[in-house]
Sequence to fold (382 residues):
Amino acid sequence: MRKAVIIPAAIAVLVVAAFATANLYRVPTLHFPFDVERPAEVGTVEYIVEGVRCRGTSMGFVKMTAEVPGMISVTTYARNNSAIVEYDPAITNPDRIREAFEALVERDGVRYQYFRALSQRDLD
Amino acid sequence: MRVLRTLVQIAFLAGTVVLMARGIAGLTPNTCEAYCPFGGVAALLPLARYGQYTCRLTELNVSLMVSLFVLTIATKKSFCSWVCPFGTVSEWLSRAGRKVFGRSFHLPDRGDRWAMNLRYVVLVLVLLLTWTVWKGDLGFRAYDPFYILFTWGGHGTAAFSFYILFAILAAAVLVPFFWCRYLCPLGAVMDPLSRYGGLRVRRNPEACTECGECDRVCPHQIPVSREIEVTARNCTNCLDCVSECPESGALELSCYGK
Ligand code: SF4
Ligand code: SF4
Fold:
């Protein structure tokens, strides 16, 4: 019955393989382009937002982002709470976007409370 | 062999319980859902159609689904009897039931075969409802005993969810693997792959005395003593039949016929 060890061995290998391959590719939870003309130059910034955990919370984040001037698109990745924002650098910059987010969370804590914990990483 | 399997089962169950405890304590937003291969199945259509995930599903669900398919092709439904924490709970409950009532209960053969197809109905319903009525939300959570138990009524469940959970657990005490056998949609997905699974129990008619012990212990009512090779889609390679067979060499595992 030595062949029985094939089963736990296969399970171990395949679990490790699943975790390893899951880090090799990234598919968005939500990609939302705003209805604006795309400027010649586009800035990109990544926010790590604890509250971005699924498609529903991603849509909530898009709603909040829509209230900030200069937004071009939002792409979220729930697995690592990541939201990648494209913006028009002629209108805004990552720090101003972040300040706008924080002001919106303060103003509308009920709707946007999930997005309180937020850190930023410049991708440009 | 049984010890090895029990150890593997305990490891996966313990991991799931720790995750549940951390979730209840607010230490992690993740639930067992993040590690469920069925999530990969639910994610397939929105991924193919929109290139985006649905609800809380991620790459990990898809990768675990692929791993599960490979495991099933290689070792039949060993996931059910070695890995799945709900399968483990069901198994322990049915063992307890056998101790209390002195036997387990089974549906009559025809009813049993018919009821086993309910899994396909559940699978189609879950996928259809997820993509239509539930608008991409994992509405199945409210009805999924695995999620209800291991999140202890987490997000998306309701009071009625616990009635469903307790009914299914009570049924498992009487009918071995009630959920797995008749209702589990993941089991339905694995069925066609399991039939061709490479690692199978093989009976050696020369050594076999046809005592029928293997048939009696098989929790999935597979008539092992009438087979040369167990190809049944339901075989989970729990190896109970092999452990209990009194004749040395009558039952063994074969790997693609070898
Ligand atoms: S338990 Fe072993 S000896 Fe008895 S019928 Fe099954 S294979 Fe044959
Ligand atoms: S007892 Fe034997 S035939 Fe039945 S499920 Fe387990 S390994 Fe398969």
